[in-house]
Amino acid sequence: MGTPKALLDFHGETFVTRLTRVLGEHCGSVIVVLGNHADQIRPHVPSHARIAINPAPSRGQLSSLQSGFAELPPEAEGFAFIPVDCPAVAAETVASLARTFEHRDAGTTFIIPRMNGKRGHPVLGVRSVADELLGLSPTDEARAVVHRHVPNTQYVEVTDAGIFADIDTPEAYRRLLQEPRA
């Protein structure tokens, strides 16, 4: 991409700044996990966010999740996670997910946005699931935990294609920049 994805611009904000802002409006604490290019990205992380360092980013997304979950405040009832290359989720979607989390059914472990039957990001979960994910070995996959909890997952129907935006190529980034502001 020519630069760390976290520093790509989306409507005047870096990906990391936008996601921190949108999540921070509804989360008590925002933790940004840094790995590769941490020194370049750190100055762009808003001051209200906590920073966690993934010491082994080459191990993949699970190692980043675990680095972030290790920093969850003790009082946190749950979490929301979204990869930095998914910057287009609408603020209203996050608000809707947060409201659903606050009024979730008993036994619900995950709150996941869905549009046209397809799941997206961010994913919200209860604290016990964060602890379960923290206990995974480096060869495990987070999706196994998510699949195990499908019966206890609440889906929130949204009309936000931003839940699917995954910027992995220059072409995907060009398409994202053509989208209206969320």
Report on this structure.
By secondary structure, the protein is of the alpha/beta class. It has one domain: Spore Coat Polysaccharide Biosynthesis Protein SpsA, Chain A. Helices cover 32% and strands 18% of the residues. Strands 5, 6, 7, 8 and 9 form a 5-stranded mixed sheet that branches. It has a two-stranded antiparallel ribbon with strand order 1-2. The chain has a two-stranded parallel ribbon with strand order 3-4. Helix 3 (61-69) crosses helix 5. The longest helix has 12 residues, at 91-102. The protein is globular, with a radius of gyration of 16 Å. It starts with 8 loop residues before the first strand and ends in a 5-residue tail after the last helix.
- The count of β-strands is 9
Provide a count of the helices: 7
Radius of gyration: 16 Å
Content-based structural category: alpha/beta
For the record, what is the CATH homologous superfamily label?
Spore Coat Polysaccharide Biosynthesis Protein SpsA, Chain A
> Which series of helices and strands comes N to C?
EEHEHEHEHEEEHHEH
Spans of at least 5 consecutive residues whose pLDDT stays below 50 are none
Percent helix? 25-40%
Number of discrete domains: 1
The CATH architecture is Alpha-Beta Complex
CATH topology descriptor: Spore Coat Polysaccharide Biosynthesis Protein SpsA, Chain A
Backbone shape = globular
Question: What gap, in angstroms, lies between the N and C termini?
Answer: 23 Å
The CATH class assignment is Alpha Beta
Instruction: Average the pLDDT over all residues and give the rounded result.
Output: 93
Binned strand content = 15-25%
Which sheet architecture does the biggest sheet show? 5 strands, mixed
